[in-house]
Amino acid sequence: MDRTRTIEKVYRKFDIHSQPSDFAYWQTQSYEKRLAALEEIRREYHGEKDASESRLQRVYRIIKR
């Protein structure tokens, strides 16, 4: 799976009172770019390094009878 950064780094300086909203920016992007950005944010949040780490951990209890 390709793990290269797909979000473009952009710097723009705005006056605090005329600052555009993030929602307006993302509405101008295609759904493929929005989903790619969402997937990247999800991976960064969960720290996914390997597909096996994304599973739930199994817990077993051994009880003497």
Give structural notes:
- There is one protein chain.
- With 65 residues, this protein is mainly alpha-helical.
- The chain has a domain at 22-54.
- The chain contains 2 helices and no strands.
- The protein has helices at 22-28, 31-46.
- The longest helix is centred in the middle third of the chain and has 16 residues, at 31-46.
- It is elongated and about 70 Å long.
Please outline the major beta sheet.
none
| Class per helix and strand makeup | mainly alpha
Mean pLDDT: 79
- Beta-strand percent range: under 5%
Using the CA coordinates, give the radius of gyration.
Answer: 20 Å
Q: What key attributes describe this structure?
A:
mainly alpha
Describe the secondary structure blueprint for this structure.
Layout: H1 22-28, H2 31-46
Brief account:
The protein is mainly α and 65 residues long. It has 2 helices and no strands.
